[in-house]
Every structure is written in structure tokens, then in C-alpha cells.
Amino acid sequence: MSESPRSADDIAALADKIKSESAFVDAVLREVQKVIVGQRTMIERVLIGLLVQGHVLLEGVPGLAKTLTLTTLARVLRLSFGRVQFTPDLLPGDLTGTSIWDPVERRFEPRKGPLFANLLLADEVNRAPAKVQSALLEAMQERRVTIGTATFELPKPFFVMATQNPVEQEGTYPLPEAQVDRFLMKTVVGFPTRSEERQIMERMTEGHEAAAENVVGPEELERAASCVKQIYVDDKIKRYLVDLVFATREPVEVGGGKLKDLAPLIAYGASPRASISLNLAARAHAFLQHRAFVTPDDVKAIGLDVLRHRVALTFEAEAQELSPDDVVRRIFEAVPVP
Questions:
Q1: Residues 6+ apart with CB under 8 A from 299
Q2: Which of 206, 308, 318, 324 has the most CB atoms lying inside 10 A of its own CB?
Q3: What Cα–Cα distance (Å) separates residue 257 from each residue in 254, 311, 326, 336?
Q4: Angle at CA 99, nearest 5°, toward 94 and 101?
């Protein structure tokens, strides 16, 4: 972790640096929104994932521009794009690649799979069996893949956007709760507004489609990722982050007794990955706002996405028709803001 600023000059210099290095963000958002109507939250979550080398799980019905968002960002950021449609008959080798016999050289040659891309769309990830999901999650964590006897580093940056369809449950394999923790955020993608839906309809039926142009490349993105690590997080904010995570584990002890009724509703709380993810995502959110420091509003903006898939509920909570979102919102209401 970078050293905290110690003087007004340090803070001013850092603010100027962040303002300069984050200038491309507005241009990226403008280009993407030439193609994508609305869905600002989804676009920002993908950018946050790229800036802190985290991965994002999107949940939403088909037709909400999830695929189009990633392909457009790949064009705008000059990154390679890969897509895998997860199906029940998919094998790990279909994702990572396999060894092919070369009759001329008389040896097995590795053939890399679609996993070797900067931006990978894992479409309907819950339709593939556990072996394939494990191969993906391992690559996300280790950022390398073994094919036969050879090990290959995945390209940098490497970002996975996995999607889940919440409507159809037949023929699906839910992601293991202990492994879904490897996603930086889980974002729920909602329907567009009335005005946005009209714009979408007009673009798709009246020939108003626009193309996005390249704005920055991998070098600028890597430099921006380095700047995000330097964004200042005050000790009070750090305590706030830890309090939020501990409230998912020990609700009786946090929040001044306001959360004691949550104890029988939470089977287990968030792991230390949650604290790390909250810190990183809040920094990246501040960067998108051209700020050199994190505020409680940054934490609140990304908190639900970071925590909702890390809190497991009991049968009692399900009987009361409560969701992890309900519990996380209660925690944010009860934990004192610095």
C-alpha cells in the first residue's frame, strides 16, 4: 500500500496527478455511450474491475447489452476480446486450450483457448458444470493456465465478466458459494427507463447505430491502475470498511445493537477478501470521479456490489423472503459513517 500524503503539497501534487491521469475516463464513457444507451452503472463497474485487476459477475435477463458493453469497451480501450458461451457439455479444455499432435514435428503442440484475451465474456457461466467453472475461477485467481506440461501467463490486463441469467434455473449449475468470492463485484443489471428504451428501439430499427472509436490503449490503462493504488484512504475510512465487513460476521457486536436481529439470519459473513475488495473498488470509484481520496460515498456506491455475493443467509432468512441485498442494506444503515 502506498504511503499516505504527509503535507498539503503532497496532497495537492497527488490531486493534480489523479486529475490528469483520470482525464481519459470521461472520453471512454462518452465513446461507450455512443453505442450503449444507459447502463452507466454496469459500464463503471467494468472499468473499476479493469483498474484494480478484479473480475465482475453480472446478473440480469438477456437483452440488456451485457455483451455489447464488453465488445465496445474492448474497441475503445484497444484490448483483445474473447467470448465463451457456457453450456452443459462444455469441457475445461474448450476454455483453456489443449495439446494437439503435430505429425511433422512429431510432438504435442499447445493450442490456446479463448481464455487468452484481455477481456473475456463468460456468458451464462451457471450453465456449465463444476469442472469448467473451476477452470475459469482458477485462471481468474492465478492468472495463468497449464496446457499439458506447459504453463502460460494470461495477457495483461486480464478481466473476466461473467453473466448469470436469474430467470431460468433448470439445467444450471450454481457457482460454488466459496468460490464466487473471487469476483470483485456482483452487479445486478436492471431494465432501462422508458426514455432509454425508446432510444434503444430507434437505434436498432431506424439505422441510428453509432460506432465507438479507440480512445486509450493498454499502456494508459496500466498507468491509471498504478495511480489508483496511490489514492489516499484515511484511517477513519479504513475502520469504516472493517466495521462493515465485521458486521456481516458479528452483527450483535457492530452497529450499537441495531443489528442483533441479523445474527440468526446470516449463515456466514464476508471473508477478508471483502475488506480488500471494498478498499480497491472505493479507490477506483474515486478515480472515476477524478478524486485523489476516498469518501464514505465511494464506499456506499460500490458496497452492495462488493458484499452481496459474500453474505450467505440461513433458512430462517429465506423463510422470511429476505435477500443478501436486504441484509447488506441494513448493515450500511446501522454502521456509523465517519
A1: 237, 240, 241, 244, 278, 282
A2: 308
A3: 7, 19, 18, 12
A4: 130
Measured CA angle at 286 (ends 36, 230), to 5 deg:
125
- pTM (2 decimals)? 0.87
User: Of 216, 241, 261, which residue is a domain's last?
Assistant: 216
Number of folded domains that form the chain: 2
| The three grid cell numbers given for residue 112, joined into one nine-digit string | 490456446
Q: Point out which residues pair with 162 in neighbouring strands.
A: 57, 122
For residue 136, the number of C-alpha atoms closer than 13 Å in the C-beta half-sphere is 37
* Beta-carbon count within 10 A of 209 CB: 9
Contact 284, 51 (CB under 8 A): yes
Which residues form the domain of 309?
231-334
Kindly state whether residues 175 and 210 are assigned to the same domain.
yes
The pLDDT tens digits of the residues spanning 211-263 come to: 778 888 888 888 898 999 999 999 999 999 999 999 998 888 876 678 888 88
Q: At what angle do helices 218-228 and 40-51 cross, to 10 degrees?
A: 80
For the segment 29-81, what is each residue's pLDDT rounded down to a tens digit?
888 888 888 888 888 999 999 999 899 998 887 777 788 888 889 899 999 99
| Whole-number CA gyration radius for the chain | 21
> What angle is formed at CA 148 by the lines to CA 146 and CA 153, rounded to 5 degrees?
25
List, as one string, the DSSP characters of 118-137.
SEEEEETGGGS-HHHHHHHH
Residues 280 and 310 reside in one and the same domain: yes
